[in-house]
Amino acid sequence: MKWEDFRQSENIEDRRGSDYAESGGGGFGGSSGHLGLGAMVVLGIIGYALGIDPRVLIGGAEMASQMASGGAQHQSAAPRGQMGAPKDRIGQFVAAILAENEDVWKDVLPQQANVRFVPAPVVLFNGQTRSGCGRAQSAMGPFYCPEDKKIYLDTSFFREMKQRFGGGGDFAYAYVIAHEMGHHIQDQLGTLSKWQAAQQNSSKVDANAISVRIELQADCLAGVWAANANQKWQVIEPGDVEKAVATAQAIGDDKLQEAAQGRVVPDSFTHGSAAQRVKWLQRGLQSGKISSCNTFN
C-alpha cells in the first residue's frame, strides 16, 4: 500500500512511553489493580467457552481488583500525550492512514449523507491507558470510544495480527484503523447511539446480534474508505486486498472461538463470522457508497 508520500495527520495523541503510561509497573501486572496478561488470556478463553464477551469478564475482574487495592488513583483524568505526527515509522504510518481517512471522509460524508465530518483523534499507547469509556488495554485490541470521540490503538496489535492471526501488511493494518474510523462515522450518522440504546433493552443473544451488525457495518465503511482513497490516489497495490481479506477472515468470531475452545457458539458472536466480515468489507470496497453498508436491513 502506498502511504509514505502522503501528508501525516497532526490529530495524533501519543501516550507511548513512561511519561504517558498509567502507573503500576509500565504494563500488565503490578500492585495497583491491573490484571496480568496471563489472567487476561485465561479469562478470554473462559469467556469464549461460556459465550460471554471476554472484555466483560476482564473489566469485572479489574474492577474488583481495583476496589480491593483502593484504586482511587484510576479516577483521575486521562493522561495527556504528545500531540502531532510521531517521529517513529509505525507512528508515521498511523498518522498517514489517519490523514487519508480524514481527507476521504471530509468529502464523502457530506456528499453521500449530508453530514459534516468531524475528525476523530487517534490515541497511541503502550499496554494500557485511560479513555472516556474506561480503561484501554492492548488485550482489548483497537477500539473507538463514543464518549470522547477518540480511537485508541496499541500499535503492538499490528505485530499480534501477523504473529497470532496470520494477517499483516500495510493495507491490512490500514483496514484496522479504517474500521475504527468506521465506528466514528456511525457515531456521526447517529447509527451507533441508536443501536447501542437498543442493546440496553435486549436479551443477551439479541444484544450480541446487534453488536455483530454494528461491527460488520464498520467493516463495510472501512471498505468505502479504501475504495474512495484508491479512486483519489491509487493507494492499493497488487495483493493488498487479499491481505486485508485474509485478516478479516482470521479475526472472525468463529475462527477465534474455534481456536480458543474448539467449537463455535454463533449466539455469542460480537463481531461476525469470517465470511460475514469478508462479505461486508468487499461490499464497501466494490461500491464506495455508505448506502451499501446497511447491515441492519
Account of the protein in words:
- The chain has 297 residues and is of the alpha/beta class.
- It has one domain.
- The protein contains 10 helices and 7 strands.
- The strands form 2 sheets. Strands 2-1-3-7-6 form a 5-stranded mixed β-sheet, with helices on one face. Strands 4-5 form a two-stranded antiparallel ribbon.
- α1 (37-50) packs across α2 (54-68), α3 (89-113) packs across α5 (170-189) and α5 packs across α7.
- The chain is globular.
- The two termini are 33 Å apart.
Describe the secondary structure blueprint for this structure:
Layout: E1 12-14, H1 37-50, H2 54-68, E2 82-83, H3 89-113, E3 122-124, E4 128-131, E5 134-137, E6 143-145, E7 150-153, H4 156-163, H5 170-189, H6 191-200, H7 204-233, H8 240-250, H9 253-261, H10 274-287
Parallel strand pairs: 1-3, 3-7
Antiparallel strand pairs: 1-2, 4-5, 6-7
Helix pairs in contact: 1-2, 3-5, 3-7, 5-7, 5-8, 6-7, 7-10, 8-10
Short structural description:
By secondary structure, the chain is α/β, with parallel strands linked by helices. It has helices spanning 37-50, 54-68, 89-113, 156-163, 170-189, 191-200, 204-233, 240-250, 253-261, 274-287; strands spanning 12-14, 82-83, 122-124, 128-131, 134-137, 143-145, 150-153. The protein has one domain (12-17, 81-293).
